[in-house]
C-alpha cells in the first residue's frame, strides 16, 4: 500500500545528499515564512559551495549505476514516485499553500499538475529511440544513439514549488541523468517533501540531491555547479537577468542549458470574439496564483468596438473575486509571496495612474488581511508609457489597452523582448490562422486561457529563453546524440 504522510512528516529542514538528510556544512540556517501572516514556519539549511560540491560528488558516484539501469527499471521507480505524490496530494497541497500562499484548491491542483509530469516521463523513459542511418558506403554501418547528458543542476522558482521542480527532475531521471537541485529560498519545503517521496519510491542514494540556500548565499553556492565540469546541464526557471547570468557563468565548461525565463504576455480581444469566453479565459489565465505566473497576461489589448463592454464585464467579475488566506476554503486569491512583490505591484499601479489610467476594480493594498495582500485590479486607459507595459507585474493587475485594427494589435503584442506566451480571442477562422503565425511566442492560446499540459512543449523565444519542458520534446534537453560508425563489414 502506498504510504501517506502527515503534513508535519513532510517538512524537512536539512539538505538531502547521497540519500541522507544533513545540515549545511557550516551549520548555517535561514527562516522560511508563511506569506499570509509572516510567521516563521521553520529554519532550513543555508548551504555554501561546500554543500554544492558534496551534492555533485554524490551525483557523480551514483551516475554509472543509474544510467546503466534498463529504461523500464527507471520507469518503474518514477511510477512509484508518481503514486506517492498522488496519494499525498492533500498534505502536499497544504504545504504549498502554507509556504507559497496560494489557495488550497490551487495547491492541490499544482500537486496533480506536477505529478502528471512524473507519470508522463516515466512512460517516455521507455521511448528513447535512436536511428539507423541509411548506408552511404559499402562495409560501413552508421547509427545514432541517445545517451544521458550527465549530471543535471536544476534551479527552480517559488511560484510553483512542486510543479517546476517535478518537470525538471522527472525527465532528467527518465533519461538516466543524476540530479543536484536548489529550490527558491522562499519555498524550499515543498521541494524537500518531493525529494523525500522520491527516496521513498526507491530512487537510489546520490541519484537525486537537494540543497537549500538563502538569497545571500545562493549565488556563491550555485557558482560551484557552474564551474564544475562534471555538471553537464543547467535547467532553470526564473527571471531573464538570472538566466543570462547562468548562461555567461557556465560558458567556461560549455554546459547544455534549458532556460524558461520571464514573460510579458499579451492577451488580445478582437471585435468578433465571444466576450463571455474571453472574460472567463482572462480570469483563468491572469488570476491563477494571484497573477504570479510567467504566462499570466500582462497586457490586455481590446479592440475599440468592444472595449467598454469588455471592461465592464471584466471589472464586475474581478470585483467578485475573494481574497483570503489559504485557510479560507472560499479563497480565490491569496497573499503575494513577499513584501518586495507587493511593493512592485503598488509601484506599477501608482505609475499607471500617474500616466492616465483609471481604476475599474481594486487598485489598493489590503492590510486588514495581512502584510502581503493586494486587491485584484482592473485598469482602463493603459498606454505604452506605463511601467507595467514593459515590465512583468507578477501580480493581480489587468491593464486594458485599446486598439483599432489587427496590424496594430500584432505590432503592440510583439513589441517586447520577451516571447513566452500570447493569447487571443476571435471567431474568424482566417484571422485565427494569421494571428497564430504572426505572434512571436513559444506558446499561443487561441480562445483558451489555460495552456499548460504535460503533453505539450512549454518554453519561449527571444529573451524568454530556450529549450522545452514537457511533451515528447522535453526529454531531448537531457540527452546527447552519439554517432557510431562501424567499418570493415564488407
UniProtKB/TrEMBL annotation:
Keywords annotated in UniProt: Oxidoreductase
Oxidoreductase among keywords: yes
EC identifiers of the protein: 1.2.1.16, 1.2.1.20, 1.2.1.79
Keyword Nuclease part of the UniProt annotation: no
Alphabetized SUPFAM superfamilies for the sequence: ALDH-like
Highest taxon, organism lineage: Bacteria
Protein name (record): Succinate-semialdehyde dehydrogenase/glutarate-semialdehyde dehydrogenase
Organism: Caballeronia udeis
